[in-house]
Design a protein that fits this description.
heterodimer, A: mainly alpha, two-stranded antiparallel ribbon, 27 helices, B: mainly alpha, three-stranded mixed sheet, globular
Chain lengths: 661, 529
């Protein structure tokens, strides 16, 4: 059964990519969706089988892959509570997005490419989550990066998109080097890269100082990998640019699945991370900072997809923070709820973009509630979920993260988290208001937003020619949204904390996956210690209040279109505003310090070292020979043989002297 | 079958030679094409036969044929194949028909000579790969040079004379060095045993003084390093590639460069094992510099072919590193050595494909400047697909052959020399930098140049030689055991025992039969008489 889960998307990709190049859009869409539906159905079956056998991890062996010396990495898959859940998320949300994409891509030509890449992506993502060793995970890890590259650059005729795709691939590769080094270290110190074997070796045994030190480095290298895939500081810069791809791609790859790979990987190897408290500190701090910085940038973006992109970076920061304080279950819970509501919001934004004829600037939208009631309703659910309005999904998962951050990392990190939550509420409500409420500012109501001019309108602006009033999308697009909306509203109930009278079923569910090795037990005692419910309730109250204040502020300022006072503020705080809307100039900084320097160095290496020095020596040597040849008038004898003969005899003599000396 | 097995390697050497003569004297071009195609086709089948019947459970030399050649000097005709040379042999014969196919449409009056030269080259390459006698090897090593010189010098681009001369001078300097060292080694063997012999099997058995090994190793290694080309001996390569015709570049990258790394494994390392401990760090250093340096210089090239040429410097840097990953125990690291052998093959496939692909657009546009292209994915989608596959293999994406080679090299090197491996893994990033730049400049962006708009996608003939390479790049990545399983004993034996390297062998007549008796070196001489 698992083979069907894995192979259906691959077959879909091959059929679309090799045999259906001339087929109509509906055919390639149909093949793509069919492959996904089959995969999802099989995934449910596999999941049920695993779940009904008391969550015993199921191992599936395909064939031997890499075997050399003592190294062995077979294509072997592991279905347990963690990967089973991820498998359902990937195929389930994947199926919905494939359905939606048929509507979204309706005006495109050559959609076979799109569905090829999308199916291939799902295949690779399944390798990533189901692999039983680091190598298979790495296949998926790089494979999803490839698909992301191809899909970001889907509209390749605009060089900007091709550049964004390339940037994503290269930045990810920096992280991938970290992952590779982690594999090398793991093999060196533990002689295996299989998860089950590592879990046995590390989880149950007592490790000496060398091995513990190695684990410190391994986890750090893995985390570098995670900063690439999961868009954390300092490697987050590719994700906002990745919005150049078609919106269903942003929903599937850059919100729901691929970008969560880092969190998934750390959870998969939690027993190693528990043994590396210093790495965990780094992870927690990086996560908190990323969450905060990205949220502040999102406050001033005017491109609807850019807001969502920075929001994703910020939410990923929460998940990473959760991992950093040892609450992997909270991280994965947030991953799960986020996958639902962020996919929902991206797809909703996609519907809006289609309705607006590929306009992405929110300041040119407004009042869409009237035209798109269904999209508005589901989008509202998404916003309520992400800002943490009880009882929507985001409330429970985010609160769990914040609570664990408080007990694990102290009030400062918690404070950053709460402020970030405030920012989140503000920019999300702002987005909602600018898009759906107030008066419609599109088509002809062009206002001036100079400072936003630079926020790239991503590339979907080929529909600029015609201006009709926006309209609701067809059911093929809104039906998946409704499903996602129901999930966004409901899935939080899986994780109602004890303090609210629930049983935190989600954490219970993930318990078999978690393993705190005996050596690290003491350090992580706080995770299971008893705390007074009043503190937890109090903190929860604080974050709800912050959320309400921030949301009200956003409603007040943007509820009926942007208030004029905003323009005045923009002038008086021009410095802050420009810095934020330029994303703290991080891209520019990297551009100058790394890319430009490297480029100049390369130019120097080639034009000077290669051409002038090395070739200079070679050519100079030839000149020298010619000169001496002239002097000794060997030229007259003319025979190459003699030159060579003399040379060899000379060399033999020389060598003999050296050797027999 | 027994007759075939006992002479299969000799047939492989001399069949292309006969083919070359027949091609040259063909009355018309059509016959010449047919003759050369049939010759290379049969060669490939013979090599496949060798692969199929090769016994993957032993490190012994197989399909051996041995005759006295110049008894008074101890020079013998010995050919044989083991796990180190097996795949290179198959690769060589595999690429030849594809190259002929890529030349099928050329109706030049000189084309007959070109085909004859290619066959001559094939003969030289196969000979060098299977020769197990130093003199015999040297003859073929030099014999490869001549056709290549003409291929670049006559069929090349504008600066072909400069490039061809540079190529020959560089290589000849290396060869002469090697010849001198070989003579000294021959003499040492004589002083130690009192027997004249140039057979590798005999030469492996002696133990030269450490000091002598050091010098001889350096000389041999430099000769091979020039061929690889290892940084800083690489500057002939970009010139040769840029000026060579497409087929010349394919064969250069596909096979000729591997002769350098093959030579390191076959000659330099097992003949002078005591020098390895001392010299390995130097070679690993040069390899790592080559990886980074080659990648960076590739990045700033404006000519697509030059870019691919410099990428070879980077990729071959990996192979050199993999050959010299010496563990603290003194053994070579096995994983790295597997990777090195595998990467040789894989580089032949992926870079061969890249040169073919550059040739495809060069034939259409008569330019290779990246700036002249852009947006070709639009009207050449199949070309784009194959270029992307070749690129992915070149950048070592998991699931392609490039990953298997590079990964094993890095993994193994990390066990032996972690710092070197960390620097070498930068190549993983930098490789992607220049290859994706290449793709972006050629395939993506607006299709605004009117000359590019009219370009047609791949013809069936072009499909014919590109698809096998693309498919192979993926198969090699997903099922590496298909190719690696037969190499294991040889690689393992070399890694563990290069300090006491003794190759057993099976005569061709016995190969592929279970009841093969293993003969020792003395018996061979008897059986030959």
């Amino acid at each position: 059964m698992l083979w069907i889960v894995l192979l259906a998307p691959l077959v879909g990709a091959i059929v679309n990519g090799l045999f259906l190049r001339k087929a109509s859009k509906n055919v390639s869409h149909g093949v793509g969706v069919l492959a996904m539906a089959v995969s999802f159905a099989a995934a449910v079956a596999v999941f049920m089988k695993m779940y009904s056998s008391n969550g015993e991890p199921q191992i599936y062996f395909a064939f031997d892959w890499l075997q050399a010396g003592g190294f062995s990495a077979p294509f072997k898959y592991l279905v347990d509570h963690l990967s089973g859940m991820m498998m359902l998320v990937v195929t389930g949300i994947g199926t919905l997005i494939h359905i939606y994409a048929g509507g979204y891509m309706h005006e495109e030509e050559s959609t076979y490419r799109f569905f090829t890449y999308l199916n291939l992506f799902v295949f690779m993502m399944l390798q990533l989550v189901l692999g039983d060793n680091l190598m298979v995970m790495f296949v998926g890890w790089e494979g999803v990066g490839l698909c992301s590259y191809l899909l970001i650059g889907y509209w390749y005729t605009d060089d900007k998109n091709a550049a964004a795709g390339m940037k994503a691939f290269l930045v990810n590769r920096i992280g991938d080097i970290g992952f590779l080094l982690a594999i090398f270290l793991t093999y060196k110190h533990f002689g295996t890269v299989s998860f089950s074997e590592l879990k046995n070796l590390i989880g149950t045994g007592t490790l000496d100082a060398v091995k513990l030190g190695a684990i410190g480095w391994i986890t750090l290298c893995l985390f570098i990998g995670a900063t690439g895939k999961s868009a954390q500081i300092p490697l987050y810069i590719w994700l906002p640019d990745a919005m150049a791809g078609p919106t269903p791609v942003s929903a599937l790859i850059h919100a729901a699945t691929m970008v969560t790979a880092g969190i998934f990987m750390m959870t998969r190897l939690n027993f190693m991370f528990y043994l590396a408290p210093s790495t965990m500190h780094v992870i927690a701090v990086v996560g908190a900072l990323t969450a905060f910085f990205a949220a502040t940038i999102a406050l001033v973006q005017s491109d609807i997809k850019k807001v969502l992109a920075y929001s994703t970076v910020s939410q990923l920061g929460y998940m990473v923070l959760a991992c950093g304080v040892g609450a992997f279950d909270a991280g994965v819970f947030h991953l799960f709820t986020h996958a639902c509501f962020k996919a929902l919001m991206f797809l909703g934004a996609g519907s809006v973009i289609v309705a607006m004829h590929h306009e992405q600037d929110m300041f040119k939208m407004g009042g869409l509630k009237k035209y798109m009631p269904i999209t508005h309703a589901v989008f509202l659910v998404g916003v309520l979920a992400i800002i943490g309005m009880p009882p929507f999904a985001g409330f429970f998962s985010k609160d769990e993260v914040l609570w664990k951050a408080y007990i694990g990392a102290g009030p400062i990190i918690w404070g950053i988290g709460v402020v970030t939550a405030g920012c989140t509420s503000f920019y999300m409500v702002r987005l909602l208001c600018l898009t759906f409420y107030g008066d419609h500012r599109g088509a002809g109501h062009h206002e001036k937003h100079d400072s936003h001019g630079h926020a790239s309108k991503a590339e979907e602006d080929h529909g600029n020619g015609h201006h009709h009033s926006p309209h609701e999308t067809g059911p093929i697009m809104w039906a998946p949204l409704v499903v996602l909306a129901i999930m966004s509203a409901g899935v939080g109930l899986l994780g109602i904390p004890h303090v609210l009278g629930g049983h935190n079923l989600f954490a219970e569910y993930l318990k078999p996956v978690m393993l705190i090795p005996a050596q690290a037990k003491e350090h992580w005692e706080f995770l299971h210690a008893e705390y007074s419910h009043s503190i937890e309730m109090g903190l929860m109250g604080v974050s709800v209040v912050v959320m309400l204040i921030a949301s009200s502020a956003a409603i007040a300022l943007y509820g009926k279109g942007p208030k004029p006072i905003l323009a005045t503020w923009k002038k008086s705080f021009a410095g802050i505003h420009t810095t934020l809307s330029n994303k703290y100039y991080v891209d520019e900084f990297y551009g100058v310090t790394f890319v430009k320097t490297l480029r100049e160095m390369s130019q120097f290496l080639w034009a000077f070292v290669d051409v002038k020095i090395i070739d200079g020596i070679v050519n100079g040597f030839a000149e020298l020979c010619r000169f001496f040849g002239g002097v000794l008038s060997f030229k007259m004898s003319g025979s190459i043989h003699r030159h060579a003969m003399v040379l060899v005899v000379g060399l033999v003599c020389l060598l003999s002297i050296l050797v027999f000396n | 079958m027994q007759l075939l097995n006992s002479h299969v390697l000799s047939t492989l050497i001399f069949l292309p030679l006969i083919g070359a003569v027949l091609t040259y004297f063909s009355t018309n071009l059509k016959t010449a094409k047919m003759v050369s195609m049939i010759t290379t086709g049969i060669s490939f089948l013979l090599a496949a036969h060798v692969w199929f019947w090769f016994d993957g459970s032993t490190s012994a030399l197989q399909f051996v044929e041995a005759y006295e050649w110049i008894p008074s000097l101890g020079i013998k005709y010995i050919v044989g194949v083991d796990g180190i040379s097996l795949l290179l042999l198959v690769l060589t014969t595999f690429l030849m028909p594809l190259m002929l196919l890529s030349q099928w449409h050329v109706d030049d009056s000189r084309q007959k000579n070109f085909l004859a030269l290619l066959l001559l080259l094939e003969s030289g390459m196969i000979g060098a790969l299977v020769a197990m006698d130093l003199v015999f090897f040297y003859v073929f090593w030099e014999a490869m040079l001549i056709p290549m010189y003409f291929i670049i010098g006559v069929w090349g681009g504008k600066r072909r004379i400069y490039a061809a001369t540079k190529f020959v001078l560089y290589t000849v300097i290396g060869s002469l060095l090697m010849l001198a060292a070989a003579i000294v080694l021959y003499y040492i063997h004589f002083t130690q045993t009192g027997i004249y012999s140039t057979s590798l099997l005999d030469l492996y058995a002696i133990k030269a003084p450490v000091n002598a090994q050091l010098w001889l190793f350096m000389v041999f290694a430099v000769a091979f390093a020039i061929k690889v080309p290892m940084w800083p001996f690489h500057t002939w390569l970009p010139d040769a590639h840029v000026e060579a015709p497409t087929v010349g570049s394919v064969i250069l990258a596909g096979v000729l460069l591997k002769m350098g790394t093959y030579g390191l494994l076959r000659f330099a390392i097992p003949l002078f094992p005591d020098a390895i401990q001392t010299c390995a760090p130097l070679f690993v250093f040069c390899g790592v510099v080559g990886i980074i340096y080659g990648a960076l210089t590739a990045w700033v090239q404006t000519d697509a072919k030059k870019m691919v040429a410099y990428s070879s410097v980077s990729h071959l840097g990996f192979v050199v590193v993999g050959c010299f990953a010496v563990m603290s125990s003194g053994e070579l690291n096995q994983e790295a050595l597997y990777g090195a052998v595998y990467q040789m093959i894989n580089h032949g496939i992926s870079t061969g494909a890249l040169f073919f692909l550059v040739g495809v657009i060069y034939e259409r546009r008569h330019t290779r400047l990246l700036a002249d292209f852009g947006g070709l994915a639009k009207n050449m989608p199949w070309f784009a697909t194959i270029l992307i596959v070749a690129t992915l293999s070149s950048v070592g994406l998991p699931g392609t052959g490039g990953f298997v080679g590079e990964f094993l090299i890095l993994l193994g090197t990390f066990q032996a020399m972690p710092v070197a491996a960390v620097f070498a893994s930068l190549g993983v990033l930098l490789g992607a930098v220049y290859m994706l730049t290449l793709c972006r400049k050629i395939l993506f962006g607006p299709l605004d140049n009117p000359e590019n708009k009219v370009l047609e996608d791949l013809s069936p003939r072009e499909f014919g030689y590109l698809v096998p390479l693309a498919v192979l790049a993926i198969v090699m990545g997903v099922f590496p055991n298909l190719f690696m399983s037969k190499l294991k004993p040889s690689v393992q034996f070399l890694a563990k025992n290069y300090r006491e390297y003794r190759l057993e062998y099976r005569l061709g007549s016995e190969s592929a039969f279970e009841s093969s008796s293993k003969l020792d070196s003395n018996k061979l001489n008897v059986s030959v008489k």
